[in-house]
Design goal:
Layout lengths: L2 H11 L4 E3 L2 H13 L6 E4 L11 H18 L8 E3 L7 E4 L20 E4 L14 H11 L2
Antiparallel strand pairs: 1-3, 2-5, 3-4, 4-5
Length: about 150
């Protein structure tokens, strides 16, 4: 992957994002993503090597179902607030934070946590996260990929 493509991804990563605050909003957001499952989405588990090819529509749908299940189980709050998108109507870049590694995911921090997963229409560049994916998340991810 050339540096220009990597820079484009990193610029998009640092761009403006809206938070999905309520679970009802997340349900509608998932439906919009499901309707665009065949739209050349890359699914990047931060801490794993970035994918080189877009995911199949089947994998996108499976990922959305599994991540929804994981978030509802492990983010035991009456609000969502762990999913951010560049656009709620026509998303191109989605950050999903791991409920077990939130730190300061919104607001200001000198060292904000990276999201656990990214859905992007752009080929992802390694975010140079020196923190390896926790074992339970690595197993979850690899089970999802069938590897």
């Amino acid at each position: 992957m050339n540096e220009q493509v990597k820079d484009h991804f990193r610029q998009a990563f640092k761009g403006r994002f809206e938070s999905v605050l309520r679970w009802e909003q997340l349900d509608a957001f998932w439906e919009a993503l499901r309707a665009d499952a065949a739209g050349d989405w890359y699914i990047y588990a931060v801490g794993e090597p970035p994918p080189q090819q877009p995911a199949s529509a089947e994998l996108v749908l499976t990922f959305l179902s599994e991540i929804e299940r994981l978030l509802r189980k492990e983010h035991d709050e009456d609000y969502c607030g762990v999913v951010f998108a560049d656009s709620m109507e026509a998303p191109q870049f989605v950050k999903i934070f791991d409920p077990n590694n939130l730190g300061v995911s919104c607001g200001y921090s000198d060292n904000p946590p990276l999201p656990g997963w990214i859905l992007s229409k752009l080929p992802p560049a390694d975010l140079d996260d020196s923190t390896p994916l926790p074992g339970n998340r690595r197993r979850w991810w690899r089970r999802l990929l069938g590897t």
